[in-house]
Amino acid sequence: MRLCVLAAAVLAVWAVAAGADEPGLLLTVGEVSDRGAVVWIRGGSLSPVSITYSRAGGGEERQAQVALSLAADRTGKATLSGLLPGTKYRYKATQGGASAEGEFVTAPAPDSDTAVRFAWSGDLGSRGNCRRVADGYPIFRAMARVPVDFFLFVGDTIYGDHVCDGPEFVPGSGFVAKTLPQYHAKHRYNRADAAVQDYFRRTSVFAIWDDHEVVNDFSGSVEPRMPTGRQAFLDYFPIVPPREEPGRLYRRFRWGRFLEVFILDTRQYRSANSDPDGPGKTMLGRAQRRWLVEGVSRSAALWKVVVTSVSLSVPTGRKVRDSWSNANILGFPEEAGTGFATERDAILRDLRGRRVKNLVFLAADVHHAELIRHHPTTEWSFHEFIAGPLSASLGRPRPLDDALNPRSLWALGGVLNFGEIAVDATSLTVRIIDADGQVRHTHAVGASP
Question: Using CA atoms, how far apart are residues 252 and 71, in angstroms rounded to an integer?
Fold first, then answer.
């Protein structure tokens, strides 16, 4: 009897420590195309969740069922197919007496001359920056006031390796995740925030991981916890990898005639960060690198946007490099560097050789915002835009990698922020917006014919 009481007490303590308060139905829609979408749900029990959905303006109501898995922390996904392009849909999830509603917009048809607007940022819930009792993650309320077609969540969607506790924070993140239930608890903690849930119910989400979904600066080829962190990430986002590659996270999607997005996985295939840079060192792996170069160079979209969780030009890492760059703190490339610049430069050389125009890389990770134009050769240039953090320690701009011949168009540190991009037939306009909703900078780039 005493053992039972003790076991119950231990479970109760773990429930508090792991943030096991029951937040009700949690919803997220993602992987939206012109004909379909994936709805993700975490339920209050293991009973199936019923989904009803229809066009926002009225029309036939359809239904779907989402089976939940105990191993996946009572989460599940369902694919909604047969949708109409460029259309707003509303949906309702019901489980027993609980219900929750949301909406999303499908992509325009690939040949549609429809303007697109989207947001991006990353880095949510680091040590000393997790959910506050007073206001949670307030930046998402500012984001909700900026209507967009979708949101790119560019890495560090949790800080699994940070302990975040104190009376000012909502309990539930005061531990370092090492097991699958602990990683689940970290994801559940962030997803259950009221402002996050409100935003995710009205805006579709395309997510990718960076390092803190597992452990700081990890390299998937040598990190034993990588598969566990990857599984928790897959369990908590509406991502459906191909059946033949169940762990694959890199993917692409089209949004009308003006935009195609290529989302990279810069973690699970990378060589050890400590390896010296050279032709044999890779961040993407052979298959993903080939997929990127072929996909971008053959894309018929006006703008090609590549999402990389780590920067091309901002050096990161302490003893060894963690981003693509080999540069030191002054921006000068080091001959014996441990970055991934050899692979980066080879990719850029291939894209330049194939005459790719209107190319933009989006990143987060460095905890400051910056708009950069790279001009590695006299006849070819591209842009790199950085946003974040959403709620994490604040960083500052630093010298950029001189090997790319960069020009910083604008930079800002010391504030929480997100980026917004609007694309039409003639230009791409980027805005950086802070947690109060104030536009800090706007920059337009004309499209090359």
Answer: 28
